[in-house]
């Protein structure tokens, strides 16, 4: 147990260091190639910080543990929006762009609703089964490809710094790769040892998936967003969260269910309701007068997350 606790903290340290390096490298690439920081956060950073979720969910699917695969993604998306984005907004108010309103926030909601409809067919509509089939997986993967292409095509921005003041492209790329490697390795150390510790304490598999695994695999997003807030890069943080959420559902669960159909047997309506709520809390950002996610928004997000965690603990 002592070794697991030590490795737990080593993983945490790697995640924090990796996040700082990743944010600097990703921002440098955004300036160099003329992509907005949001799109870099949505794609490179968002997908990179979701690597732990990919590993956990794919392994869960291959081992026939649908509860782990689905619970990890459901918990991660709730954790991403309510805790991470909430905390980031408290630290640094995040400006909302027209692109966020027209494309990214609606897409996050659309993907969440589609996932719930596909996964809860029997409960909601009285036919089929509750879970994701291989066909559902292919639909999710196809939608992911379309969205990524659209995001890149619409994500051009003007560089804001003189080339002489920027790091070389190769150095930015090395920083991105190194940061992602530290995040992934550190995240795996954190998750594996946190899971072992929880199992030793007799906690249920579903609770581990939605809380410890979800929180652990979202640790890269947390560290990256806090680092981005410290560097006043709110759009990169927002892109990271929305990108991770979309990536988690469309690609991770898409691939997982394409490999092996996933059952929703132990995922209840409260869990899915919280997932939907975590997408709906961003709807006020679609209003033209809502120019940013501020401290008050962040506090509300955090209070909702605390309430959900209390519900899970009470219903262990």
Beta strand count: 4
> What is the distance, rounded to the nearest whole angstrom, between the alpha carbons of the first and last residues?
23 Å
> What's the CATH class, please?
Mainly Alpha
Main β-sheet description: 2 strands, antiparallel
**Biggest sheet: strand arrangement:** 1-4
Q: What's the CATH superfamily, by name?
A: NCX, central ion-binding region
SSE order in H/E notation? HHHHEHHEHHHHHEHEH
The percent of residues in helical segments reads: over 70%
The CATH topology turns out to be A middle domain of Talin 1
Overall pLDDT: 81
CA-based shape: globular
- What would you report as the Rg, rounded to the nearest angstrom? 19 Å
Count of discrete structural domains: 1
Which range does the strand content fall in? Answer: under 5%
Q: Would you identify the CATH architecture? A: Up-down Bundle
**Unreliable stretches covering 5 or more consecutive residues:** 158-164
Instruction: Work out the helix count.
Output: 13
């Amino acid at each position: 147990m002592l070794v697991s606790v030590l490795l737990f903290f080593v993983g945490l340290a790697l995640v924090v260091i990796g996040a700082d390096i990743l944010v600097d490298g990703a921002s440098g690439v955004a300036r160099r190639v003329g992509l907005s920081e949001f799109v870099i956060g949505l794609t490179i950073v968002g997908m990179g910080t979701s690597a732990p979720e990919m590993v956990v969910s794919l392994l869960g699917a291959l081992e026939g543990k649908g509860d782990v695969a689905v619970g990890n993604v459901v918990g991660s998306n709730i954790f991403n929006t309510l805790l991470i984005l909430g905390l980031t907004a408290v630290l640094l108010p995040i400006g909302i762009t027209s692109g966020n309103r027209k494309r990214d926030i609606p897409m996050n909601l659309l993907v969440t609703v589609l996932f719930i409809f596909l996964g809860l067919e029997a409960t909601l509509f009285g036919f089929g089964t509750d879970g994701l089939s291989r066909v559902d997986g292919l639909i999710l993967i196809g939608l992911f490809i379309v969205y990524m292409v659209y995001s890149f095509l619409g994500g051009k921005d003007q560089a804001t710094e003189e080339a002489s003041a920027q790091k070389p492209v190769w150095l930015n790329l090395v920083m991105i790769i190194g940061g992602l490697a530290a995040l992934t390795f550190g995240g795996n150390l954190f998750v594996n040892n946190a899971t072992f510790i929880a199992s030793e304490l007799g906690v249920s598999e579903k609770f581990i998936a939605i809380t410890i695994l979800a929180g652990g695999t979202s640790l890269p997003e947390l560290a990256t967003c806090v680092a981005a807030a410290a560097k006043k890069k709110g759009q990169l943080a927002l892109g990271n969260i929305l990108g991770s959420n979309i990536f988690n559902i469309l690609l991770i669960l898409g691939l997982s269910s394409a490999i092996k159909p996933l059952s929703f047997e132990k995922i209840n309506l409260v869990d899915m309701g919280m997932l939907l709520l975590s997408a709906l809390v961003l709807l006020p950002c679609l209003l033209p007068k809502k120019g940013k996610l501020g401290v008050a928004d962040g506090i509300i997000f955090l209070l909702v997350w605390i309430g959900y965690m209390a519900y899970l603990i009470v219903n262990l």
